[in-house]
Amino acid sequence: MPELPEVETARRLARRVLTGHRIVAVATVDDPIVYAGVSPRRLAAALRGRRVEAVGRKGKHFWLELDRRPWPAFHFGMSGSLRVYGDASERPRYWKLELQSEDGARLAIRDPRRLGRIRLLRDPAREPPISRLGFDVLEEMPGPRQLHGLLSRRRGPIKAVLLDQGLFAGVGNWIADEALYQARISPHRPAASLKPAEVARLRRRLAAIVVLAVRVLAAEKDLPRGWLFHRRWSDSRPQGRRAERIVRETIGGRTAAWVPSRQR
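RESULT FIELD:
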């Protein structure tokens, strides 16, 4: 599932390909599930002929800032992604929207499982669903004291709280598991039970994980080999680093992978 690093990588790709260029052609498919609150025809009409001035993002959502509103906003859901190519014959399978810039580059949103969304909003950052998000964990991470105050009011397990997009915008399942593993905190711990030093440690590890994942363009092979990420779903002898036993269970409705001998 695309998390913040994948979406930030897509945002940077869209910025590189589209910023400063006019959209000369828009191709759509008829998909009333992926197109949320707008018809493909209306979205195409709003985009065609407009110049892209910037590409914004918050959490797992990103949008194009055009020279005239409204603007298109995107969420990848479970399987969405961005593709760039030069000819219509290269359109990827399961494409939902294709934009062609004045220099000939084509950019497509693809979504095999149809769980992503394409919207048309006047001000994406100030309208639902984006306006309901909490702080962006890459750009807006609060300080240790403020974060401790936020968590002190949460009684749920810390794993579930990390996945709450109304608080930690952009954190997904693997990032939450990795941050708790590196911070040596059990995913079962009530968020309010974390001491200030534990919150500070979790904050440092979470920020470092996100920054590094963005730096390597979300390429799994480039993440450090010592990370839990590389073995959290291994089917053969669930052993972590130093032969640590990995436990997999459901916490707060989501599957968690953690190491009880390391995380308290």
